[in-house]
Design brief:
The chain has one domain: Arc Repressor Mutant, subunit A, CATH 1.10.10.10. The protein contains 7 helices and 3 strands. The protein has helices at residues 3-11, 14-25, 30-37, 41-53, 76-86, 93-101, 107-110, and strands at residues 28-29, 58-62, 65-69. Strands 1-3-2 form a 3-stranded antiparallel sheet. A hairpin with a 2-residue loop joins strand 2 (58-62) and strand 3 (65-69). The radius of gyration is 14 Å and the shape is globular. The model has no long low-confidence stretch (mean pLDDT 89).
């Protein structure tokens, strides 16, 4: 699938947009995102896979965790789409609640291996 289609598919789901808004605050691992959103780990992993495949997120190993974050140097088209998504005048209560929950998420408490 062309990059353009992958990006639009990834951004077409509100829960993936929620994840992007969380990652705009700080890098997070799957268990942290799962805790904040209240989804199954497999669902969050599926969303992150689509976002990563579209070039909208990157991952890196941090000890026993894999952190997901917005790309440091996205392609120009990706940067534009991220900017539009994250800087829109979307005043969504769910996103505000997610950003509030991120303040209290503790990976050591929820991500026991």
């Amino acid at each position: 699938m062309h990059r353009y289609q992958k990006v639009h598919k990834a951004l077409s789901d509100f829960n993936r947009v929620r994840i992007l808004h969380l990652l705009a605050v700080r890098p997070l691992c799957v268990c942290e995102i799962t805790d904040i959103l209240g989804f199954a780990t497999s669902t969050v992993s599926q969303h992150l896979s689509l976002l990563r495949d579209a070039g909208l997120v990157e991952s890196s190993k941090d000890g026993k965790w894999v952190d997901y974050r917005l790309p440091d140097h996205p392609a120009p088209g990706i940067r534009t789409m991220l900017d539009l998504t994250l800087n829109s005048d979307l005043d969504e209560a769910t996103i505000r609640q997610d950003r509030e929950r991120i303040k209290s998420v503790d990976r050591d408490a929820i991500c026991r291996t």
